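thoughts on my protein:
***
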Amino acid sequence: MRSWLVALGLLGGLSAHAQSPVWAIHGARNTVYLAESVHLLKAGDARLPPAFDRAYGNAKTVVMELDLSQLDAAAMQSYFLEHATFKGGATLRQTLGEQRYRKLSAEVEQFGLPMAALEAFEPWAIALMLTDLQYLKLGFDPDQGVERQIERRAHDDGKPIQGLETLEEQLGQLEHLSYEQQGRFLDLTLEELHEAEHETDELLVAWRNGDTQRLASLLSEEYTEFPELFSALVTERNKRWLPQIEHFLKDDRDYLVVVGALHLVGKDGLLELARRDGLTALPVRSN
């Protein structure tokens, strides 16, 4: 789950030692910067790598997975109540089965939550909720994440922000998983909760150092046994985003595109998809 919320990527062959979390693709009249995001950071360790400053300074428009300036708590709550709750008489215990349900109950108890508070929600939504709670418990703050920092900066500077997708498109990938797949997603989440602190520290070191090979390994290892989840969270979204990025390259102004680090790495990452389309991505240095 660190892959979804902490870093929700880079092919070693592109340059395993590029030492930058930001890449540049040059068009005929402009540049599109692709930046690896970590969605949550700790307040005492939230400074962005210097390459972000260079890319942001050149960009006239900021693009993120979602336009956070248009997303508020009320919209999120409304979406979850409509799309993340059981319909037609199904229950959480029936959907998960007794063994998974007992395991979930034990984990929920560690957060001081009553199971009754979660009974109405489908497994994918519970997975996201527990991940949020765990990272908050560890001191991570979404307001210190890459997107929120850049959003505030863009707002102050009057730079427009765009989204690559809507909330419905993003979370709909999880909503449409079968209940068995959602159960496996929840299993993966519960396993990750106990390893989150150590593995997230490793991920942040790789991200700050631009160690793309290590980053790719850390982010993708869980998904090798769950290709359906990887496809829903990463591959299909990358395929929808690439045409938009290629459209930006036809403009005469520079863009900064900020997406979770996992979306840039691997054989179906945005950098590799761009390469297949004849585009060249170069690492952005801090000076």
About this structure: The longest helix spans residues 227-248. The radius of gyration is 19 Å. DSSP finds 14 helices and eight strands in the chain.
